Amino acid sequence: MNRCYLAAALLLATTAFSQTRENAARFVTWQPMDVSSFEDGYKRHLAWHRSASDPWTWYGWTIVSGDRYGAFIDATMFHQWTDFDSPVKPAEDAADNAMNVLPYGQIRSVVSYEVMSPLTVFRPQDIESYPLLSFFTLRLRPGAESAFEHAAIGVMRGIGGPHAILRPVTGATDYLLLLPARNSIDLPENAEIFRRLVAAMPQDAVVDTRLELARFRRDMSYWPQ
Prior knowledge:
Elements: H1 7-12, H2 16-20, E1 24-32, H3 35-51, E2 59-65, E3 72-79, H4 90-100, E4 105-115, H5 124-128, E5 132-140, H6 145-156, E6 164-170, E7 175-181, H7 187-199, E8 206-216
Antiparallel strand pairs: 1-3, 1-4, 2-3, 2-8, 4-6, 5-7, 5-8, 6-7
Helix pairs in contact: 3-4
């Protein structure tokens, strides 16, 4: 991945988050019990979203490397926080989910994040056009959040390609760094960015880290008509 873009291009690549404060995201992690049945059921549930004219976009990934190997992650992003107060037909959504998805998979976590606009260059097309996405999580010592965010400014300033740092709001305490990749040759560079981010922190600030790779599931994603 060529990250040496012109500075002018970076300025033009301002994200939707910083332009309209659409900086809210929600990630759900599923552990399929029967992969084939889970995927079929999840696709039926996405069909419900389509029939309900859901205005939100839902992205799906399968973890293909890391501690959560085999897990499925769905996420809805590029929201204002008030959007989460008015989802489409929540009772019907829950009922269809219970019928089609929950018999075949367990929800492991539901996490809401604030996308940190000054540290992010990430657009919908950056999700949709990259087949791979590196998920890097950092668990910090309580009180080290400000130091991390300050250090991240220096590290991420030099990153030319798409990237996002997400601050936990509910459901988790770990920060999340997202770096897309077109193919496997991009992965060492993504890992190096993460190592630089960790190295920029005070020695005792980082409690734990996790490095995972996910494959984008276009067939298990939903876009409004």
